[in-house]
Write a structure and sequence with these properties.
Elements lengths: L1 E3 L2 E3 L4 E3 L13 E3 L6 E6 L7 E2 L7 H11 L8 E3 L5 E3 L6 E3 L9 E6 L8 E2 H18 L4 E5 L2 E2 L18 E4 L15 H8 L3 E3 L5 H7 L4 E5 L21 E5 L13 H10 L5 H19 L10 H9 L4
Parallel strand pairs: 3-8, 5-10, 5-14, 6-11, 7-10, 12-15, 16-17
Antiparallel strand pairs: 1-2, 4-9, 7-8, 12-13
Helix pairs in contact: 2-3
Bound molecules: zinc ion (ZN).
Length: 323
Amino acid sequence: MIVLDGKKIDYPLSVCWLENPKWCPKATDVSLRHTWIRGIVLHTVNGKKGPLKPGAKDTGRDFNYARYFANSPRKVSCDYIIDCDGSIAATNDPLQNYTWHAETVNPVTLGIELVQDDDDGGVYVEQLKATARFVSFLCESLGIQKQVPAIAGKPDPQVLTRLKAPNEGNTVVGVYGHRNQTTNRGFGDPGNWIFEELLRSGFEGFNFQKEEDIRDLFVPRFYFGCEADDPMNATAFNTKANPYHAKIRAVFSSDIGHWDVPDMTEVTEEAYELVEHGVFTEENFRDFVFTNPTTLWTGMNPDFFKGTIVESQVSQLLANGAH
Ligand SMILES: [Zn+2]
């Protein structure tokens, strides 16, 4: 069982302080949560990289750490401790209090510790799978986007400057490692294994340092059908005004099935008036009526325009690298 905002939730293989306060005591080093949780910080208990091992191992040490955190004079705690078999010791209600696991970002995050094998610091395949499922569950429950720091599909171990002052995690939404928060912790806190598992299970990887990634995720994937002759269409191409100099993929929409187009032969002419009035450049008009519609439909079906009057122009455009 875990507890979110006082609500008891049956979660597979989890035990919380309400069920077994002796084995799994409630975290004592906590502060009152004042703001929404936007990050999940992953840790390994040793903070050093160990091997990846097949299967699972019930070490029982998730409870040892729960007791250690509750009883140690050190000012440390975390929300969940996940054993090498994927079982979870839940020691805090993250919506009511925050724990002390990653210094400055504590007020805006929750912390998860992965138990490492006492022989060699290894983590286990089944433990990683269970952790990815649990992190996914928490992201869905708390409204955190499923994203991790990664560059070109590989987990990014560098310290994120956006987790430092003055923002201290306020502007970072997603799941990251203790190593991304401080140079005091090494690569192995929590290592790459868990991030590779999260990426495999559908988490999006992107460079948290580079805000343009947001643009790169959204702009090429969205197309907007626009009224043919609306002067506001120009905003889509206004790279000086748009955030990150984005050019939005506006698509000419003729409205010819609509009551307010009494003569369908005039629609393109009306649209071209945007150029004549200096609202659009020639290039904007080309993107609006040709480039954007082409990349939209050929993106799903490269042969979409085969056999039509524009077949050769479309092939030419795609051959020139439009996508
Ligand atoms: Zn840590």
